[in-house]
Specification:
With 100 residues, the protein is an all-alpha fold. It has one domain. Helix content is 63%, strand content 0%. The chain has two helices and no strands. Helix 1 runs antiparallel to helix 2.
Length: 100
């Protein structure tokens, strides 16, 4: 004899998972956009050091180095890709019926 219990919170849980996935995808998109901006600033600073572009907007300080901007771009891109993979990790269809 098999007794099956139907829980009523399944719909609420699915709504939460959908909202969680959407928020994670939005954060991944924003992190990828920020990484592109960081790459632009890094290559602008590198070009300014090689005298290929005009002066860089930040002349002194920690963020005046191209290595910082490129490292930040790599870090943001890795985080964005990781969040994107996390958001798509549970999209595999799950079987609703158990084989008998």
């Amino acid at each position: 004899m098999v007794v099956r219990i139907k829980w009523r919170y399944v719909e609420a849980l699915e709504k939460f998972r959908h909202a969680h996935r959407q928020a994670t995808l939005a954060a991944a998109f924003l992190l990828n956009a920020l990484s592109v901006g960081s790459y632009v600033l890094g290559f602008w600073r590198l070009g300014a050091d090689l005298q290929l572009t005009g002066e860089f907007a930040i002349p002194r300080g920690f963020f005046s180095h191209w290595q910082v901007w490129l490292s930040l771009g790599i870090l943001l891109q890795v985080l964005g890709v990781s969040l994107n993979r996390y958001a798509h990790s549970d999209e595999a269809p799950t079987p609703t019926e158990e084989p008998t």
